[in-house]
Amino acid sequence: FCQPGGWQLSKERKQPTFFVVVLTDIDSERHYCSCLTFYEAEINLQGTKEIEGEEESGLIPPAEVFAPKSLVLVSRLDYPEIFRACLGLIYTVYVDSLNVSLEALIANLCSCFVPASGGSQ
């Protein structure tokens, strides 16, 4: 569900996309899956191919291929804008390699109080 267009490599970096998918479990409970998909340079495509005793590097240089990655937040609450902001914060810390522990950041986000629906912000 986090790659509705299929998992495909790209020759160019695409802009991040955000969308929400609603999944229903066996008890008819809704689960809101907020997805932020972005493309990252793939560095594990360097392979070697042996041709007539010579080694030739992989056909596609790794800096020219981008692979999709997804950050997903699953909740029983329907707060797409809050979840978009949370995923955007995690994305920014990850992409900009900020000196912040992702584990600590996610733990802090999970411990935030979310107001009741219809209540004050």
The SS-based structural class is alpha+beta
Main pleated-sheet profile: 3 strands, antiparallel
Helix content: 10-25%
Poorly predicted runs are none
Number of strands: 5
| CATH-level-4 superfamily name | Longin module
Domain count: 1
Instruction: Kindly report the spatial arrangement of strands forming the biggest sheet.
Output: 1-2-5
Instruction: Report the CATH topology name.
Output: Beta-Lactamase
The amount of beta strand, in percent, is 25-35%
State the order of secondary-structure elements, H for helix, E for strand.
Answer: EEEEEHH
pLDDT averaged residue by residue: 81
CATH architecture identity: 2-Layer Sandwich
Distance between the first and last residues' Cα: 31 Å
Q: What is the rounded Rg? A: 19 Å
CATH class category label: Alpha Beta
Write structural notes for this entry.
By secondary structure, the chain is an alpha+beta fold. The protein has a single domain (1-44, 64-112), classed as Beta-Lactamase (2-Layer Sandwich). It is built from two helices and five strands. The strands form two sheets. The protein has a three-stranded antiparallel beta sheet with strand order 1-2-5, covered by helices on one side. Strand 3 and strand 4 (54-57) form a beta hairpin. The longest helix is centred in the last third of the chain and has 16 residues, at 80-95. The chain is globular, with a radius of gyration of 19 Å. The model has no long low-confidence stretch (mean pLDDT 81).
